[in-house]
Fold these 3 entries.
Entry 1:
Amino acid sequence: GENEMNEWVENTFDNYYSNFSSLTLNQIDKVEQEINATDITQKHKISTYRLDGRDVNTPRIYRKIESKELRLLTIYYYSKDEKKIELVKFEWGKNRNKNQSIKDVVASMNNSEMEETLYKQKFDWISDYLKGKLGEPNDLQTDKNSTEQKWKKNNKIIVLEYSKRDVELTIYSE
């Protein structure tokens, strides 16, 4: 449920933020397995511009269902040699249920405004949580379709992004 996932995100973010420099692939696998997350790691190469120049493997990806509308992917980029975590991204998006009827699919296409509200509420909740933990962001960019908040603290960069189709929270080191 949403309350359980919010609590998990807060606890997990706190743990990752505090211990980021020593996080390993084995540790995050245990965290995800404790809540029975589904491993959906891809076989093909995936990269991120945030880690340009770093030698990282295709990320480990876990999926959790937060609600009927939302799923949470947690994406972990890690170094090839020591399996040290280099970047963690929490990504909230549409829960695409394979058992939907055609009627449900059409109805959901008409509910894009409801989805935007859902993402905005999730963004606002995470933003309030981060401001309470880290203070005001160092950088803020916003336009009519998206918002990005960025914090730089203790050699770590935390980025919170909102768009009409998802919300992303990323943590990585400089």
Entry 2:
Amino acid sequence: RCAVRTQSSFDRITSLAPTQPYLSQISSILVPDMGVDGAYDDAAADVTYIIHVASPVPLLNGGESTDDYESSMLQPAVRGTLNMLKAAVKHQPAIRRVVFTGSMSSLGATLEAFETLTDEDTRRHEFKRPFAAQAYAYIASKSLAFQAAKDFMAEQPRGFELVHILPSFIIGRDETVTDASQIAKGSNGVLMASLLGHPRPPLGGASVHLDDIAEMHLRALTVDTQGGKYVDFL
């Protein structure tokens, strides 16, 4: 079951070649605004596992931007995270596990936080407003969402487990790209900018391939956590 903002988005997904063998197994439910209270309540009904991948991302390949980062990036990231967890609570005990797609940025709230070693124990969540650029707001949004999930799960015991997957830049084929002008869309833009001769400053972390991240999400649904209620994956 795919939670999508518009039916046209779902129609586009199901028109792509990789989804064709699975059309009979895929359904959609509309969630126009994940920041609205109860946004995922219906989406989480009668399911066993949840993978939450939705969060605002910076415009890596240009386009219109906004300096209202609180409403465009930070609030949707945090509210979407909490709304999904609240929906899971409402549908206990059917839901066994929730997997969130976080980011390396979940562990450090500024670009400077990654100037030293970053691992699963890193927690550098301090940042200052106003944000100098969209990238700083994005990093802060991932950090805040990560903390919000941790705090939510710590409030009281839950009947489900929460897993965070925290990758760096994800690269790989993008089936939604249909012409050359879109080749740098999304996080692939980090790689393509260099290949196309556009200089950019060094970036912290390493890249990971889309296929590996997809497999990790699926494995995270069934991995044995030996009774733990919270697991972070890098």
Entry 3:
Amino acid sequence: TDRHTRLTKVWINTIVHDERGKPAAIACSGLDLTDFINGVVSSDLPGVMTVFFDRHGAIQGHQDVTMIDFASARKAAGKEVQNTVFNFLDRPEDEAALQRAMAALVGGKSEVEALDLVVQGRRQLIGLTWLPEIQWFILTMTPPTAAVGGNGLASAVLLLIVALNLVLLAALLILQKTVVSRVVRLDALAK
């Protein structure tokens, strides 16, 4: 992946078998997810940051391209060091809380989890949701001080929930347009 021109690319491999069930050919295609990630990760809301990461915490989308864990599947298999969301948490109890929230989302026990964590030395309100179609989490964070009004915490939580819902809606629309329709067409052509 060329980090200067593309954020990430998803490669889809299909193995074609002959009539005896033996591999006969491999078809490969790539989908550029740059527009998808840019459209969803970048936020116009002050103090709000959105991060995409996989089941293992490897960062798949971030406004700072250097934070993305390129080749995360290969790194996980080879036990290489990865850029994960857990690297930014200051306290072990915050990592445990994030992992519990991730498990609840994957298990279908909730659709959105809200957490209050310390991220790189600063308290952040976290909204977390799961996109099962691509097996990624969307984490939206904002500092509690970004809230205005009499009850700062309630305003911040409301702002976080609104931002997370907007990000989720945008992600689903962009995902459908840029990835799912192409994968469906590729699958139909492969069959």
